[in-house]
Amino acid sequence: MAEQSSDAPSLGLRELSRVRLDELLQEMLDRVGDVMASRERLRALLDAVVGIGTDLDLRSTLQRIVEAACALAGARYGALGVISADRTELANFIIHGIDPATHAKIGDLPHGRGVLGLLITDPRPVRLPDIRKHPNSYGFPPHHPPMHSFLGVPVRTRDQIFGNLYLAEKQGAPEFSEEDEEIVVALAAAAGVAIDNARLYALAQRRERWLAATAEITSVLLGTVRLTEALRLIARRAREVSGAALVLVMLYDEENGRYSIDVADGDDPATAALVGQLIPVDKAAAAAFGQEKYRLVDNLRTITEWPGPVPDAPALAAPLAASDNLQGVLIVTRAPDRPADDEDAVLLSTFAGQAALALERARAQDERRQLAVLEDRERIARDLHDVVIQRLFATGMHLQGAAPHAARPEAVKRINEAVDDLDATIRDIRRSIFELRAPVGPSLRGELHETVEAAATTLGFRPILDTVGPVDSAVPDDIVPELMAVLREALSNIARHAQATTARVTVQVTADKLNLRVEDDGIGADPAAARGGVVNMRERAGDLLGDFTMTPRPGGGTIVTWQVPLAG
């Protein structure tokens, strides 16, 4: 028998055929490995797509997109740059892979220049083996980690570019592969859907909050509306819904061409100083603004000379207008990293329109209340004039008629004193009638009382104030500031020079003249030595075609008389 070979059976294959079979088997194994790897990457992509859509919060969604892109492509660093509304730069930048300490050292985030700007001007994928060698590369700022390989992919939402995915530093390979680009492009497509859903959800939430605030303002309209309370509620709700750092409610004074800041609701306590300040405005510009729905302001601080602290930030301005009548403006600031869009502006405009109705109703209710008060005052004044004064006058006449028949001189004296008291009472009642028929709210009579009260601190005593005639209704507006300036100067002179213990101020209005008389019981003054304030009082009278005198008072002291005509 022939000996059998110890080698394994060759199955009839020659040596060359066995080598070829091994190569084919290895190629098959490699392809199976590629298929398995592709299957794993596809599964990872599906998991990432599901993961980025699990939450509808926009910021969380963007962060998960960046993390998923880094995991799928094997990138060490990743970022998602959100493009600004004007499509020229990056408005926001969400990063992954850089720790907070390094992030703080780097400083400002990129604005979309250099290589990062390529995807803004030409939204197509960009894959580079070394970003530093690209002709558009600006280099990296200090403390920035070194980066070489780069992959950039645009993220679309519907027909617009929302932002760009940037990946750097491929791990385990010198550069990103074509497969990496394909899988990131697929992720970007799914990310666009997730971002669109998150934005729609955020918009629905904002609409719900604005509608709730508008409904609250509407409910206020159903009850008694106080103007100040309504303005504060409008500002507070607008700030809560919009997340603004500052909300201003300014009412428009058409007659004087200016805005008055009635409410300032903000984070900074110093904004309270803005309340009550006046902002001049061109009447034509104000009328044009009243016809608009809203206006976007790039920088609130630059639109006018503000009399207090105003943030350097963009803002939305919506007119408070009802029935084509501009009542004011509602201004809401926005954070620089959260630019306002048209949807926010429309929601604010709708809220402002409802707020304008609240103001209109508040003013109507105030007018009705004032009308009711005036009617009540007119009734009381009529009763005092037609009943009380006539009875007092008749009583005085009876007493005067009885005086000649009195037997004793003492009785005659008492009757005459009683008649004098009745005359004084009638004068007081007439003054009260004038006060009752004066307009409700701020008045010249009230301003006179406040000035006299304020002078008591420096004088050491309270001067007596008499007002005679229609002080509130007959004195023209251009004479009021002159009158108050003269009164303050006269009281100041008494406090500084007169050494008086009493003073009396009389303001009398007749059919054609206003007469101010200020007298004191002090040491007197020499009219020839008058200077400073006394000269100013004389000049104020001359400017109004009136007269000024300063004479000694019988018994000691000084009498200052300032008299001007009421017409022209």
TrEMBL record:
Domain of life (superkingdom): Bacteria
Record InterPro entries: GAF, GAF-like_dom_sf, HATPase_C_sf, HATPase_dom, Sensor_HK_TwoCompSys, Sig_transdc_His_kin_sub3_dim/P
Residues forming coiled coils: none
Domain GAF: 57-205, 226-369
CDD domains: HATPase_UhpB-NarQ-NarX-like
Key word Transferase present: yes
A Pfam family recorded for this sequence: HisKA_3
Keywords: Kinase, Transferase, Two-component regulatory system
Alphabetized GO MF terms: kinase activity
Keyword tRNA-binding listed: no
Name of the protein this chain belongs to: GAF domain-containing sensor histidine kinase
The organism's taxonomic lineage, starting at the top: Bacteria, Bacillati, Actinomycetota, Actinomycetes, Micromonosporales
